[in-house]
Specification:
Length: 478
Amino acid sequence: MPLVTVGSQRLLLPVGWSRGGRKSRRWGGSFPTGVRAEPDLHKAASMPRCVGLTPSPSPLCLLQMRSSIPGLGRVMVFLAAALASASLAVPEGWGEEGVQYGQVGTEVTLSCAGAHASSPVQWKRAGAAALPEGSAIRQGALVLPRATLATAGTYSCHGGDGGLLHAVSLRLGYLPGVPFVSCRASDYENFSCSWTSSVETFLPTRYITTYRKKSLTGEEKRRNKNGHVGPCLQDPSHPGTCTVHGSEFWSSYRLNITEVNPLGSSFRLLDVTMQAIIKPDPPEGLVVEPIPLAPRRLHVSWKYPSSWPKEPHFQLRFRLQYRPIIHRSWSVVETVNLSEVITDAFAGLEHVVQVSAKDFLDAGNWSEWSAEARATPVRDPATTVSEETTTDASLESLAEEPSQAPNPEPINRSDPLEKMAILVSLGIFAFFVLAAVLVVTILIWLRVRKHGKDETKPHNFLVAATHLKALPTEAQIL
């Protein structure tokens, strides 16, 4: 079993392998440029023998994997094998004929197709008078040691008569890095993931995106022993994103985002729980309106985001923030309703209002804030004259030093209805206090009176006894 090396990566090949539809090659034959065979190693003998340069494994390969690797490992190795074979494919697999790829910092060899072994060969670089420093010609091939990005370009080999034999475009770059991946669910039926590359490779790049459902029911496990594996669908109009449709809110998923370029591949595995990544879209249809005859009130209403299914079991709660346009600090109110009345607005000042949403049971994260909506509360007719006399300097000082209190408005701008409510409350409170004092006073008076009566009873008894003793007895009368 030959062990083939491509760049810095090693790959164990079966006896026969195919590349791009070419005729099978066998151990001891020639390999493509940049690929070399090494003697079989004892350690390599235990490696899976179904990893080749053909992206689609054969049925024999699949059977061999099923018998050697149990459970989930079979699926993961299958995916890894397919990705490795795709990443190690020669440049033709990337749809660019006459292009050869190389890794920066390594030795790159350019072969001269059509040259005879005994014929002299001359190499030239387009747009340059000389070849890169340190380059050498060995058996008709151009060897470029420690290639850099500046080494890239178009090279051509010529025969002894100066005739063109072969031309190749050399593109240099780096191996893929582990991509950065994040996932988000805007509803409880679908979730999407986005990624960015961690390394600028300077080479064409593809992404393979799959997922596996982790928590399976007994029936699902019997139907599919390896778990439910499917593609995370990519949208060409939104590069760098993929979507899993028909997900389950109480299930967990494992995402595999693999970055592939002509030099190799790198992947990121990310475990996703729907409850943790749920993040609704911002509420829609935000409307702010002043309330007539209420100088300090604004009526705010909004709608559920259109992406959130309206089901009774999955509700949203909302967070409202508002401020006068001249202030920097926000006031925040939470509610479960689709409307709210702001009661401490500044009369006559324009206000900015935004709203966000979150799952009712506090799962996941708050949505982004909605687009701003603005409105101005009506002015209080009783204070219109005094407001007209306010100078610009006082407004500027108010803007520079915003109050942290939710209602820094002067007293003369207060709502008459609020004044009346306060007076009524104070009156009721005073009534209850006076009633309590009166009851306590009556109880004390009754107690004192009862105590006085008890003290007079023994005194009267002694007086009566004294009078009886003073009366003459019958013997004395006789």
